[in-house]
Automatic annotation (TrEMBL):
Protein name, per record: TPR REGION domain-containing protein
Organism per entry: Candidatus Southlakia epibionticum
TPR repeats: 70-103
Keywords associated with the record: TPR repeat
Pfam families (UniProt xref): TPR_12, TPR_16
PROSITE patterns for this protein: TPR (PS50005)
Signal peptide (residue range): none
Superkingdom field: Bacteria
Length: 218
């Protein structure tokens, strides 16, 4: 029903970075910082080109130099997730979270638990991420999808609607329409898709013309 896409900066299910490599190395001595910057460049380029072994070696070298580098652990977790080494990915994200608590690391842990069908733990991780200051639409959508797996439709719809409040995009509305369909709310799904199509075919941006759907009564 829901394919989990392990991608960076694309799609609803998105693995999140914590801080940038430059921020992670700025307090180190200049000579060492330059070496780490080079390693970060190798790691980033290798991740993009799917040269995972090369990326892993660069990230592990960074951690040998700076063993408390939360950003490196987070990137390493992303690398392992891309290779479906989920146990290693969770370990890396949890270490990153222990070193530098962030919604991004918690979100990443939640995604792994979702992929491995451990929905209770996924829900807990997403709840903790949502409780932190930073919140974005994709986190509410991820949490909503876990709630559907746990058979909590009311909570699912609440968070899909919250996602639309944060990011009223055609994609977000389509996700809500799909949820209506799966829950037997075919009239609501059809009405919402009609509004989406009208908005797309109009001159105004779709988000400006699609009205917020009413909360579903359960």
């Amino acid at each position: 029903m829901f394919g989990l896409l392990f991608v960076v900066a694309v799609g609803i299910f998105t693995l999140w970075y914590t801080q940038s490599p430059n921020e992670a190395t700025r307090d180190l001595p200049q000579r060492l910082s330059a070496k780490l910057d080079k390693l970060w460049e190798i790691a980033q380029e290798s991740l993009k080109s799917q040269r995972y072994l090369r990326a892993e070696k660069a990230l592990l070298t960074i951690l040998r130099i700076d063993e408390r580098n939360a950003t490196a652990y987070n990137r390493l977790g992303i690398l392992y997730a891309k290779q479906q080494a989920y146990g290693d990915a969770i370990e890396c994200f949890e270490i990153a979270q222990s070193l530098e608590p962030s919604a991004s690391s918690l979100h990443n842990v939640g995604l792994i638990y979702y992929e491995t069908e451990n929905y209770e733990k996924a829900a807990l991780a997403f709840e903790q991420a949502l409780a932190m200051k930073e919140t974005v639409a994709s986190r509410h959508i991820a949490y909503a999808k876990v709630q559907e797996k746990l058979d909590h439709p009311k909570r699912m719809f609440e968070h899909l609607e919250r996602a639309i409040e944060l990011e009223p995009s055609v994609q977000s509305y389509n996700i809500l329409a799909d949820a209506y369909e799966r829950n037997g709310e075919h009239e609501k799904a059809g009405a919402l898709r009609t509004r989406i199509n009208r908005a797309i075919n109009s001159k105004n941006p779709p988000a400006a013309r699609i009205k917020q759907p009413r909360r579903v009564a359960m």
